Amino acid sequence: MGQFKTNAIVIGRTDYRDHDRMLTLFSPDRGRLEVLARRAKSPKSPLLSASELFCSGEYVLYSSGEHTSVVSCQVTDAFYPLREDYERLSHGTLMLEMCRVVVQPEQPEQRFFLHFLRSLAHLAYGSASPRSVTAVFMAGLLSLNGFRPAVRKCTCCGNALIPGEGMTYGFSLTRGGILCPACCIADGRTLTGKDVADMQWIMKEGLAALDGGLKVSSAVFYALLEMAKKRLECTFQSEKMLAF
Ligand SMILES: [Zn+2]
Fold it and tell me: What residues sit around ligand 1, an ion, with C-beta below 5 angstroms?
C-alpha cells in the first residue's frame, strides 16, 4: 500500500484503454509486478520511454491495494540498440518471454535479475553473437531455478566428459545433461567435442565466457532451449522469430 520505489525492467507491455499501458515489471525485490502507466501512450508523456520493453530504471509506484500504478521513473538504460537489429531483438524478446514465465509475483529474484540485466547489456552493446548471449542466459536461468545442466560427467554412466575432436556426444533432456560417446544414442540430438567444451565453459564462467570469445553452435543453443522448455513446462512464442 502507498508509494514505494523499486528497480525494475519492463518485461511485458499491453495497450490499455485509449492512452494507458499495462506494464509487467521484473523487480529484484518484488518479483513480477503488473502496473498501470497512465497516459503512457501520449507522445509527450514523461512515462513514454519508461513503458517501453527492455527499459530498466528506478520506478516509483503507488499501490492502492487493488491496483499499482507508475508515478515516475528514472530510466537507467533503455537498451536502445536492441530495437535496431532484428536478431538482437528476437533474442531479447525470447529472454523477456522466459522472464515472464519464471518470475513470480512477490518473489524476490536478486541474482536472476542481475543475470538478466547483464545479459541484456551483452545483447545490446557486446560483440558476442546473440545466440551465444542467449545460451549463457538460459544456462543461468536453468541453474538459478534448480535445473543446472550436467556437463562434467555423463548423465548416463557417470564417466568424466573429456571433450575430444571427432567424437560425438549426446544431450539428454530427460537426464538434463550431456551423454558420453559410449552412451550417446544415434538418433538423439548430438553435440561435438567443441560443443561439450563450450557448455563446460558456460557452466564454469557464466557471462564472463562471452568476454573470452565464446561462440556457441546452434546445437548448444537448442539443447539449452529445449531443456528450458521441458523443465519450465512451456513453449515460447518468440522462438519463431529466431532465424538459423
Ligand atoms: Zn556415458
Answer: 154, 156-157, 180, 183
